[in-house]
Amino acid sequence: MGGWITLIAMILWTLGAIQWNSQGCTFFPTSYRLVIQHGFPSSYDKCSTETEQGTVKDD
After folding, report:
1. pTM above 0.90?
2. Distance between CA 3 and CA 22 in Å, rounded?
3. 11 and 26 in contact (C-beta within 8 Å)?
4. Spatial distance between the Cα atoms of 48 and 56, rounded to a whole number of angstroms
5. What is the pLDDT of residues 22-53, one digit of tens each?
6. CA 38 to chain centre
7. How far is residue 21's CA from residue 34's CA, in Å, rounded to a whole number?
8. What is the 3-state secondary structure (H, E, C) of 15-33?
9. Which of 13, 22, 35, 53 has the fewest CB atoms below 10 angstroms from its CB?
């Protein structure tokens, strides 16, 4: 049972990282880190130099 939960969590984490990647972030490790720090991005979230260092730019 725990293996299935881990698999589902990894799939959701990867889906969030793909969305951050489409916002302009590097896929690994930045997109994965942003999923943990900020969750899934909104349509207004973009990556910038500051985002690569851990902050999100909301325009």
Report:
1. no
2. 29
3. no
4. 8
5. 999 999 999 999 999 999 999 888 887 765 66
6. 7
7. 10
8. HHHHHHHHCCCCHHHHHHH
9. 53
Kindly state the tokens that stand for 59: 């325009």
Token digits of residue 1: 């049972």
E strand or H helix that includes residue 57: strand 57-58
User: Closest Cα to residue 19, out of 48, 42, 2, 53?
Assistant: 42
Per the rule left: phi > 0, alpha: psi between -120 and 50, beta: everything else, 42 is: beta
30/26 Cα distance (integer angstroms) = 6
Rounded to whole angstroms, the Cα distance separating 4 from 44 reads 33
